[in-house]
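User: For a benchmark we're assembling, each entry needs the component sequences followed by a predicted structure for the full assembly. Here are entry 17's components. Please fill in the structure.
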Amino acid sequence: MKSTFNVGVIGVGRIGKIHIENIIRNVPGLKLKMVADINIDDQMKEWAKKVGVPLLIQDADDIFNDPGIDAVVIASSTDTHVKFIQKAAHLKKDVFSEKPIDTDLKLIKETLEIVKNEGIKLMIGFNRRFDKNFKRVREIVKSGQIGIPQIVKVTARDPALPSIEYLKSSGGMFFDMTIHDWDMVRFQTGSEVEEVYATGAALVDPEVGKIGDIDTAAIILKLDNGAIGIIDNSRQAIYGYDQRVEVFGSKGCAVADNEPTNTVRLYTAEKTKEDNIPYFFLERYMESYALELHSFFESLRYNNEPSPNGEDGLINAIIATAVQRSYKENRPVKISEINL
Amino acid sequence: MKSTFNVGVIGVGRIGKIHIENIIRNVPGLKLKMVADINIDDQMKEWAKKVGVPLLIQDADDIFNDPGIDAVVIASSTDTHVKFIQKAAHLKKDVFSEKPIDTDLKLIKETLEIVKNEGIKLMIGFNRRFDKNFKRVREIVKSGQIGIPQIVKVTARDPALPSIEYLKSSGGMFFDMTIHDWDMVRFQTGSEVEEVYATGAALVDPEVGKIGDIDTAAIILKLDNGAIGIIDNSRQAIYGYDQRVEVFGSKGCAVADNEPTNTVRLYTAEKTKEDNIPYFFLERYMESYALELHSFFESLRYNNEPSPNGEDGLINAIIATAVQRSYKENRPVKISEINL
Amino acid sequence: MKSTFNVGVIGVGRIGKIHIENIIRNVPGLKLKMVADINIDDQMKEWAKKVGVPLLIQDADDIFNDPGIDAVVIASSTDTHVKFIQKAAHLKKDVFSEKPIDTDLKLIKETLEIVKNEGIKLMIGFNRRFDKNFKRVREIVKSGQIGIPQIVKVTARDPALPSIEYLKSSGGMFFDMTIHDWDMVRFQTGSEVEEVYATGAALVDPEVGKIGDIDTAAIILKLDNGAIGIIDNSRQAIYGYDQRVEVFGSKGCAVADNEPTNTVRLYTAEKTKEDNIPYFFLERYMESYALELHSFFESLRYNNEPSPNGEDGLINAIIATAVQRSYKENRPVKISEINL
Amino acid sequence: MKSTFNVGVIGVGRIGKIHIENIIRNVPGLKLKMVADINIDDQMKEWAKKVGVPLLIQDADDIFNDPGIDAVVIASSTDTHVKFIQKAAHLKKDVFSEKPIDTDLKLIKETLEIVKNEGIKLMIGFNRRFDKNFKRVREIVKSGQIGIPQIVKVTARDPALPSIEYLKSSGGMFFDMTIHDWDMVRFQTGSEVEEVYATGAALVDPEVGKIGDIDTAAIILKLDNGAIGIIDNSRQAIYGYDQRVEVFGSKGCAVADNEPTNTVRLYTAEKTKEDNIPYFFLERYMESYALELHSFFESLRYNNEPSPNGEDGLINAIIATAVQRSYKENRPVKISEINL
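Assistant: Structure for entry 17:
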């Protein structure tokens, strides 16, 4: 049984950097061999040197062509995911890819077939499954302590609206942001979504509405076991990154509240005060990124199917498609309506 | 300006008893003259004597016919509300009535016209508006501290399923239970509902489904200012009476969590434990019942329109009708679809 | 077995009014016959009328001389307690007296002997034993859930410094304020104090120091079972009435935190805020005053020894004397040093 | 200005390993050159290889004799601290040393004079000053938000009694455990201790008493600004590592509660439950160890006096000596009584 795996990383953006630092510092079983980015500049070079990247290259093919590289971590822009996954598959390299696989369901399906035929492993970066709080909720649910899940609630609110430029190419709020939330509902319950109803509006900034997107949403999911999922989203929670999960069932309820920044309470003449919750995903989910790569390593090492895998990526994209249709047509949409 | 008002109470059930004790002990401006119940037995007589009811009678007409009685508190069964409100109106007695006014929108409208024509005051018992926590949220919202409301969430779960007998005559979950929750959304935002989407199931007990009712529900409301309301309900939260409200807006978020039974935390070798939240509405909302009667007294004394009033009762019933239709037809229903 | 008892109340100050209202409204087994106060004015008369006092008199002897009165509630100034308790005892009337019995240990002892000889019941108003949170801690400790108590911590801080006039006649901080806290240590553990060490200072206001008193204190108690008590006090906690209890033992720890004013949390751009804790004892301990009178009633009805009783009053005064000596001489003082 | 410093580490025990991993992974400005331990075995060699130790040697003198090493981290047994600090000083190498410097005040003073004469930097490992919660309290206190500190409370309870063997050579509870706590009081207030009173007992295990030690303690400190410090300790808090700090002042109170293990609350039919707090210092203070080394690096880089420094080590040892005398003689002891 191999105990270390050589990896290459494609994409040195915000998420790519997190993965690279985690591989170097926190996942000893993964050995970073090289990192590719199409746009290398001096700042990136300096950063790479500082954190200890052994080789920074421009052409991702150098990674694919290196027979010593066992696995590829894909953190490049969404529109390149499918291409790189397929290439890795054909070269029998395992893949960890950022979500979403793509927004085109046909392309995803085609890619998963190649993955299957080539027999590689494909893990998709739904990192919140590795957050210690949400994992604890899942353990509790799985152990039966809350009985049969009946209502699952996910609150996910970002601290600040991204730029309109970003939003234009984001694939829309549901594909870009909410996709994590039904993945969380599926993760917590182990059940699949059968029908969705979505509503939303551009309440934070009317400019968002002008480009055909929304910044505030509420979604109801009907699961195959009869349970109901409820998601609420906003692109701008002025007090920080609001991330909560609640699973209510026949024997109890497990609630994961926001992580506190610290435990200090200040009592003053007017109010009792606490510091705000962590500002954004880098603070809140930092640990989860290391844990998901560690999980990827373990699935390589012990030859287990990774989780979440490509199938999860596909299902989450199908739900996104259904949610989008529900929002546009203002009616509940069955998942079975979505043709692949 | 009159500073005390003589009242009669109709109905000595669970809620009637609360109102009677509050009038005697906690609302000095209301003087209880008599109490009527169609089914008087020895236990009721004994109870009445113990708490200090001055006169217990069988015929509510004795209350209506007493010119010394200024106001009537109606806590009898739902199907008698309209009849008693109309009778009180014609005799120029002000009315505090339990919710709902009725489940028939036409009857409600007719009754409100009589109330208007006769010029009496009519307050409806949406007592949760007087809960100190929810009131505090409303104060914060009203003061502008959370900016413009964008998402309002109400969680309302009863501790235990009522008997199937009770449910059969309850008017269904939406009229019986959820009606409080959109009233809360309206109260918190000061906005009106324009469209609803409701889903639900009989997850607690299949017997509930057999009588055509549900015990678990999720509802999305679209408000006239663009904000979104989200309600989730269960008839059986095994850990107690789960009652929470959250208003999220452009400048912040106000969250009213459950009242703790006490503040004691017990740290043991296995777990950190707290006592469960209060079991049911008697424990949780006791104070709110006194405060709503006090508010009724003040509207009598200072000649103000009571709040919530008959109009609130009507609107809440219209929403219940729309929600019911949405659930049955599995589609969003506009409030404007509901013909009076 | 008698089920109702006629009572008279002496003293219509802040505490007297609380007891009077509780007797009228919340303890049905106690029937208020008359109330005496040496200084009756129009405001008091009006108040008495409003709450329903049947008879307001100036001379407490009218209460003692009324053979129909079973029990006396003493809420007059401390220097009258002993006189009234003795008088009541000789007339075979049971007594509920505010704390402290007196600051003179000899006088207390003499009085308790009369109480014993005459066979009346004497309950002392250490009301915090009836606070729902502290009672819950006691239940947990008694049930063995935290094992053998090893450390007991009491934090008791008043919201604002009383007037220097008040302090001059208060008997000093230990007799006036801290006496509740070692009573709490004794109540929680069921153990007695063997030795004390006290330190303190006038940190809030140097004027307090000028009259020979302190406003800030820390006290260590050694209990007869080896456990250690720790008390900290301040006369001025600018954020409200800070009242906490913690019992740490071999199997766990039970902590009663401050009661929240409400459960609302407000998340804003700068901070997360809560309303301050209740301002003072009227808000925090209101319920405990009703419960202690109810307990007094039950000890009358079922002929049980009241708790806390005169003996508790004596012991708490002995500890106060030892604490005062420890503070003055800056050394640990054994309780056995205190001669009666 | 030098931006990286070569370091050697002496001692590969529990704490030494933490420092070594932090230097390698989390403090880029410190470059680990070699590590010395008097007892090297295969397990240690394997660990060293795994984490990336460049050179593992037996003789600490190899570190001292390497002119390329700028600074030494001392994590060997307490009785070697003074010897190594002095040697490093004579060789002009800066030192980070674990606490305590020694238990002999004369030896400490002598060592600090050598440190001063040779002009090296000496930082002492009172790591809790770098805990994010306690640091936040200090920031609040320093900013004046709680006004003038009046009462400082430190609760520090270990989860489990160490072995009797360990305790025999630990220097006693005050030197081994409580020394962190008055350091915390000094850190939070910026004030110095003038007098102490200590009490304690062997309540956890009578065997501890037989070796002349205690396992439970309460200590009162009088500070030079009049404020009062209160510490309570236990060697065995069965629910985990209980570490809390509270600073109460003229304008408010800042309270750092225990870190939660996660934010999940589980509501069940009987109780509301949370997972216990972190079990011991490795979980709770892990981050603080990295931050203190980072602070050491910064004092090297910017040529600042480190904090806490040797003087803090001396003062904390003096207080330990006074506390021990207070406990033994059962009387308050002034710091000025302790002769150096």
